[in-house]
Design a protein that fits this description.
The structure holds two protein chains of two kinds.
Chain A (H helix, E strand, L loop, with lengths): L2 E5 L3 H13 L3 E5 L2 H10 L4 E5 L7 H10 L6 E5 L5 H8 L4 E4 L4 H12 L3 E5 L3 H13 L4 E4 L2 H10 L2 E7 L7 H11 L4 E6 L4 H7 L5 E4 L4 H17 L9
Parallel strand pairs in A: 1-2, 1-3, 3-4, 4-5, 6-7, 6-8, 8-9, 9-10
Chain B lengths: L2 H44 L1 H6 L2 H20 L5 H6 L7 H11 L2 H4 L2 E5 L4 E2 L3 H19 L5 E8 L3 E8 L25 H11 L3 E6 L5 E7 L4 E2 L6
Parallel strand pairs in B: 1-3
Antiparallel strand pairs in B: 2-7, 3-4, 4-6, 5-6
Helix pairs in contact in B: 1-3, 1-8, 5-7, 7-8
Classes of the chains: A alpha/beta, B alpha+beta.
Chain lengths: 248, 238
Amino acid sequence: MSKVLVVDDEEGVLLTLVANLELEGFEVFAAPNALEALEILRRVDVDLVLSDVRMPGMDGVEMFRRIRASGCEVPVVLMTGFALEGQLDGAMREGAFAVLPKLIPVDRLLALVGRALGNPTVLVVDDVSSVAESTAHALSTTGVRAAPAFDAESAIRFAATHRVDVCVVDLVMDGTDGVETIRQLAAADGTIVCIAITGEDVPRLVHRAAATAYAILRKPVEPSELVATIARARSHSAVRASVRGELP
Amino acid sequence: MTDRDDIVDDALLLQELESSLRHGLRNHFSAIRNAAYFLDRRLKAIGAEVLAADPRLGKMLALLETEVRAAESLLGTEPRIDDVLARETGDCDPAEAVRSLVAELGPIEASRISFVAATSDRASTSSRLLRRALAPILANALDATGADGAIVVRVRTVGDGDVVVEVEDEGTELGAAYPPPVPFASSKDGHLGVGLVRARRAARLWHGSLTIGPRDPRGTVVSLTIPAALVATDGSAS
């Protein structure tokens, strides 16, 4: 049975999240603040942390950083009552799995929890093998499980046999280009979110990719920026709705 | 102070109030939605007879979700107050903003302030917004130190290129309760609890930060950070 730790200072939110997760079959641990959560993590090997961001004393982002500083790579999903908080960008760059709005419907939240517990792989598709491999390696160092693929065919084959939730796809590749690769991946598994990436000036490909990719990044991409984009893609995939960029 | 300064002050305060309210409502609606989802699943699993006996039960549970969605939609409405602050853009010199604020305090107050400008970096934000954020920080420092107390203001570039304005006084320490979590919640006699809240709101508009800590051996250091994303070192803000 997977163990989930829920952290929230709002009693009503904590109680109802715990009840729904238990109903889903998880073993759930509850903490009303970050310090108690860290104490639980010292005693229990949990599989996922689901935490509020703004709490009295230590906030959720600081707690996430302490978890990582302790060497623990448990997936951490942050939840916020604001559509966007500046400090969350830092947490996403450092490997938070996703950031969700507090008002997310429970079924979508449970779906994301299920995906996070499966520790899904980010597939990096690039026909230059050294680029695909080094990008996957860079992601792995921040706790993001990643694997390289060198063309559309091997990417689809990998996705069919592994849990893949995000693909980072180079737009300009020999053989099948990135746009067609994204289309084929989406056709094979509609839940995969693709991030396009390009180092070349290819406006037509970029224009076509914009219709299907979650984001288009320009090479060279800082690993932390890619990690943050993956977290945003996972969050977006869970919510599937645009939210206003409101400050805390 | 100009009329526009007043408007920006009011907008910062109103946005903070409005934001606190939205945050609280989202938490409450979230708990209601979660509870309704739980009850719906449990009733379907173990209370089918109860649901059949009174069809209004199912309708009520569905109504909770509908109402939360309607409330969520209202919470997502763009407040007009954001427009006021969105117009506060531009390019400013943080060191110059401090200098001009200090000069406006008058010669007696200004003589108590030592100013160290250790950067010439500029920031892509409005000079007015920066000054409205710094004004209450300086006022608090002057108030805390009494007539003879000294204050040090430093503007410097740190870490990854953030510009920090530090205001250091040797007066009574502000303590961990500052700034208060919401406006008008000051525990300090004679204080409304709006000045530092305004400064915090301005920092949030920049995705920067306002931090308050003790000064050794006595006093307070307030740091207002403008993140590197808004800072340019080549003389023109990004």
